[in-house]
Amino acid sequence: MDSILVGIGTAVWLGILTSVSPCPLATNIAAISYIGRRVAHPRQVLAAGLLYTLGRTLAYVVLAFILVTSLLSAPFVSNFLQKYMNRLLGPILILTGMFLLELIKLHTPGFGMSAGVQRRAERWGIWGAALLGLIFALAFCPVSAALFFGSLVPLAVQRGSGILLPSLYGIGTALPVVVFAVVIAFGAGSVARAFDKITQIEKWARWVTGLAFIAIGVYLTLAYVFGIFR
Questions:
Q1: How many domains does the chain have?
Q2: Looking at residue 111, what is its pLDDT?
C-alpha cells in the first residue's frame, strides 16, 4: 500500500514540477490566455480548464501506455527490465536531476501557440481547450522530456502502471491551468498575484527535486551497481 501511495505521489509531483518548468509554463500561460477570453462566462472558463486537463492527460496516457506495454510485452525486454531496472534507474535519476539543476543544458526552439493552432482551437469553441492540451502535452522540451521519459516512464514500467500514473502525471501538468480557471471564474483580479506565486516556487521546487533525484540516483547506483549498502 505504501509503495502504491509513493508511486501516486511521485507521479503527481512530477506533473506539477513539469507544469511550472519554463517551457511547459509558457504553454500553460498560452492556455490560460485562451481560456481567459471566456471570463464573462465562469462555467465556460471552468469547463475549458477541465477540457484542457483532459487533453493533456489523454496525450500522456496514450504515449506512456504504448511505451510501457511495448516494453513489458516483449519477453526479452521485460526480463531485462526486471533484472536491470534498479541498476538503470540510478543513472537515469542522476541525469534527470542534472537537467533540473541545469548542469546539463540543451537549447531547443520554444513552442508557442501558433496562429494556425489558435485558429483551429477557436473553431472548436470550448472544445478547443482539449485540442490545446493535447498539442501542448506533446511539445516536449529538455526538462519536460527528462521528467516524462526519464522519470515517469521508468516509474510506470517499474510499477506496471501504464494508465494510472500517467493519468496523475497529466493532471499534475495541467494543475496551474485548472487553478487559474477557478481564479479567473471567481476573481479575475487575483490572477496576477496567483501567477507571481507560481513563478516564485518554480525555481526552488526544481532545485529541491533535482537534488533529491541526484541523491536517490547516487544511492541506487551505489546499492545496485556497486553493491554497497546491500
A1: 1
A2: 47
Asked whether residue 170 is domain-assigned, the answer is yes
pLDDT tens for 22-79 read: 677 777 777 777 776 665 577 888 888 899 999 999 999 999 999 888 877 766 766 7
Residue 41: strand, helix, or coil: coil
Q: 27, 17, 20: which is closest to 136 by C-alpha?
A: 27
What is the separation, in whole angstroms, between the first and last Cα of the chain? 24
Q: In the Cβ-directed half-sphere of 94, how many Cα atoms lie within 13 Å? A: 12
Nearest by Cα to 143 from 198, 203, 91: 203
Residue ranges making up the domain that contains 90: 2-224
Global pTM value:
0.74
Report angle CA 105, 111, 117 to the nearest 5 degrees: 165
